[in-house]
Amino acid sequence: AGSMSLAGVNPSWAAGGPKTTLTADQALAKLKEGNAKFVAGPQLCEADLAHAREHVSHGQAPWATIVGCADSRVPPELVFGGVNVGELFTARNAGNMVDTATMGTIEYGSGVLGVPLIVVLGHQSCGAVAAACDAVTKKAKYPGSIGPMVKEIIPAVKAAKNMPGDLVDNVVRESAKLTAKKIATKSPIISGLVKEGKVKVVAAQRSG
Questions:
Q1: Of 74, 52, 70, whose CA–CA distance to 61 is shortest?
Q2: How far is Cα 193 from Cα 8, in angstroms, rounded to an integer?
Q3: How far is CA 93 from CA 35, 61, 167, in A?
Q4: Using one digit for the tens of pLDDT, what is the confidence trace for 42-80?
Q5: N- to C-terminal Cα distance for the chain?
Q6: In the structure, what pLDDT confidence band is assigned to residue 85 with cuts at 50, 70 and 90?
Q7: Residue 112 and residue 9 in contact, taking contact as beta carbons nearer than 8 Å
Q8: Rounded to 5°, angle at Cα 183 from 125 and 146
Q9: How far apart are CA 176 and CA 184, in angstroms?
């Protein structure tokens, strides 16, 4: 997997060292295989944490970045089959959206750590998405920072409101697609790596 040097990066925090050898397609296949394992036999998703922790104590070479929802029922390391420490670079927030901090995290993952695959992971019955749907269909209002957070999902609601099927699930899928497109096109770092064929950005949905 390719990585790029970032102007102004201080080697003391750039987490140098060997990068993953997986391609984006290999990383995606590994995630799919892990998820199938989780669905078929979640009790088999065990991790040798002691050994893995020792292995990554001096550096990390994650092979996928997961932009996931903060929902407590969708922990990426378990959803993808008991993935161990040091393998996934994760950013989680309600609705799996991308703000400045999250975009910077993604850019660091691929630009510095050499992560070849970025996955925007939505999930069924997402509370943030349901809130955005209510904001459009019921004119619901939300206090504090929840309102602006939900507002970011509204373009997906408008895009999906006339689709057949469940509105929330349709918006989950549409929002993940729009967020993946944003990552791949709005970030000069990621878009450059995508054009070079070194990074792939995909949208996914976790059932349940």
A1: 52
A2: 18
A3: 21, 23, 21
A4: 666 566 655 655 656 667 889 999 999 999 999 998 889
A5: 32
A6: confident
A7: yes
A8: 45
A9: 12
Global pTM reads 0.83
Helix axis angle for 188-195 and 167-186, nearest 10°, is 80
Contact 131, 142 (CB under 8 A): yes
Q: Token pair of 49, please?
A: 């944490």
Q: Hey, what amino acid is at 108?
A: Y
Angstrom CA distances, 6 to 43, 59, 176, 189, stand at 41, 18, 27, 9
